[in-house]
Amino acid sequence: MRTAAHRVPLIASAALLATALSTGAAATAAPHMPAPAAAPVSATAAAPTAAAAAAQASWPTVKSGQRGVDVTTVQLLLTARGHAVKADGVYGTGTVAKVKAFQKAQHLPTDGIVGPQTWTRLVTTLKPGTKGTAVTALQHQLTANGHTVKTDGVYGPATTTKVKAFQTAHRLTADGIAGTHTWAALVRGGGSGGGGGTPGGGAKLSDAQAAAKLKAAGISRVSSGNCTDRNRKNCTSLEGIRVGTVDGVIALKKKSGCKITVTGGTETNHAGGTYSHWNGYKVDISRTSCVTSYIQGHATKHHKRGDGAWVWRVTSGGKTVVDYADERWANHWDITYY
């Protein structure tokens, strides 16, 4: 006969058995219970690297209503990717539809706007020997950036030379291969990069030389005094302007498709300093809606100057290439090519 002392361990054992059975039953009855939440991903792993973020930010935004070489580039690249569209340099409804179709095929947001994500899927690495509309797009961009080459769709020796020259000017590996970084620098624009990288960009021109280059590109100039004397403040002079500055203005016209009118050059009565009008680094152009739309779509709003003008900046390789200062009160853009 078991005493009370013997029954205590038996009761405890029964309790343990009941607990175990209960736990097993619960596990069987609830097979769809969610698994414990995974540990959160670290901020470092979740966030893009600084380099990736910089690369994303370096692409311009091209959208409905815009015109110019960047639009032509989008159209040619769409055709190369199997979404054929007329390369007329006008971002109309047909181009919007093709961009949306491309974005849908690439599992991107179908907003019809070519931003960083769409650009990186749209461009393709091109090498010497390649042919097609993507090469034509590359050649259009090279020409618009001051490295003129025939747009024949053939990646021959001449195109290779121009690509290498552009890469050298923008501090990229000069391998003659148009990869993502080269494409980004091309469509980002800013002309020849001023005199900082382009050979001869720092050389200065006479008024007649600069005027001839601008006129050949379809760019006019005006002055309140109808004169070109750099020593008179009401004149618009190009005497002593840098080659890089003139090339930059020409590239701006080609890439934007806008009418460009120079309203200020190297004449007196502008602010001084190293990167000044007098030293040939700056130029003023009329503030039209076309020009304003292009600049704000292809540069980054950076800072406000002491005089209240907002500066929109273009950089390349971590260095400032162009500053566009919005001098709204004077109805012009004050542009500095470094």
Q: What sort of overall outline do the alpha carbons produce when their principal axes are compared?
A: globular
DSSP, total strands: 7
User: How big a fraction of the residues is strand?
Assistant: 5-15%
Mean pLDDT: 82
Topology as H/E string?
A: HHHHHHHHHHHEHEEHEEEE
**What is the helix tally?**
13
Major β-sheet strand ordering = 1-2-3-7-6-5-4
Distance between the termini: 105 Å
User: Which secondary-structure class do the elements indicate?
Assistant: alpha+beta
Main beta-sheet annotation: 7 strands, mixed
The percentage helix is 40-55%
User: How large, in whole angstroms, is the Cα Rg?
Assistant: 30 Å
> pLDDT below 50 for ≥5 consecutive residues: which ranges?
1-57, 190-200
Question: Summary?
Answer:
The chain has 13 helices and seven strands. By secondary structure, the chain is an alpha+beta fold. Strands 1-2-3-7-6-5-4 form a seven-stranded mixed β-sheet.
Description:
- This protein has helices spanning 4-29, 43-46, 50-57, 69-80, 93-105, 116-122, 133-144, 157-169, 180-188, 194-197, 207-216, 243-256, 289-298, and strands at residues 220-221, 261-264, 282-286, 300-304, 310-316, 319-327, 332-337.
- The chain has 338 residues and is an alpha+beta fold.
- It is globular.
- It starts with a helix and ends with a strand.
